Inverse folding.
């Protein structure tokens, strides 16, 4: 299985930039496709798709969310962070049988 | 609007069985692959099963292979997860999710399963 590693938590101030990273145990890119996706989960709610294939914004997601990366290293950026963005963020790969990272809890500084 | 509504969760004893359902609306259910994903209390997400739109292919995580069965009834817009030989480590919130190519683009609110004596 491809293991995805995320930092457990990140503290940010409102209005600042948040950068959440995800590292894969092997490349999740095939040709020009980077098969890494990002989800947001707020407490007591189901996850919601934010970014697909590393850098594509899902429908209805605000432009302050962006994604980048290729190979084994990927980043989700939120700029500027708003109060509504306080949540846990998961990366997920689809290069092989789907796996998720352990999640990064975004907290207020 | 896409809606996925899970049901069938509950408290069961180790070794018993349970069948979850997920009723879909707001999209052409028969055209999309569907997933089950679970989340143990205070833990992360674990993908457990995928079924193709026409039931031609089914895939499972090793943790549930041989014990869980994913199925669907396109005439009823319903996805199922039959869970046998349940263990305490199967305690989790179980989500169904709509597949869009290689992502899960819509999720249900979840069904809670607790396995305990």
């Amino acid at each position: 299985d491809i293991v995805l590693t995320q930092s457990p938590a990140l503290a940010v101030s409102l209005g600042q930039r948040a950068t959440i990273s995800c590292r894969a145990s092997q490349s999740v890119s095939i040709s020009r496709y980077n098969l890494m996706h990002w989800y947001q989960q707020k407490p007591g709610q189901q996850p919601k798709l934010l970014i697909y294939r590393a850098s594509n914004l899902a429908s209805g997601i605000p432009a302050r969310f962006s994604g980048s990366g290729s190979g084994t290293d990927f980043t989700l950026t939120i700029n500027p962070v708003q109060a509504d963005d306080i949540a846990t963020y998961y990366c997920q790969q689809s290069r092989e049988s789907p796996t998720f990272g352990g999640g990064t809890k975004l907290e207020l500084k | 609007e896409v809606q996925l509504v899970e049901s069938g969760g509950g408290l069961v004893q180790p070794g018993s069985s349970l069948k979850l359902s997920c009723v879909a609306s707001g999209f052409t259910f028969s055209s999309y692959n569907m997933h089950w994903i679970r989340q143990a209390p205070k833990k992360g997400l674990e993908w457990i099963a995928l079924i193709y739109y026409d039931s031609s292919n089914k895939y499972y995580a090793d943790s549930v292979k041989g014990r869980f069965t994913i199925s669907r009834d396109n005439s009823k817009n319903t996805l199922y997860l039959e869970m046998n030989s349940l263990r305490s480590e199967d305690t989790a919130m179980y989500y169904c999710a709509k597949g869009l190519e290689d992502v899960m683009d819509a999720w249900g609110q979840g069904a809670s399963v607790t396995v305990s004596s």
In short: Chain B touches chain A through 20 residues (CB under 8 Å). The first strand of chain B starts at residue 3 and ends at 7. Chain B has a mean pLDDT of 98. DSSP finds no helices and eleven strands in chain B.
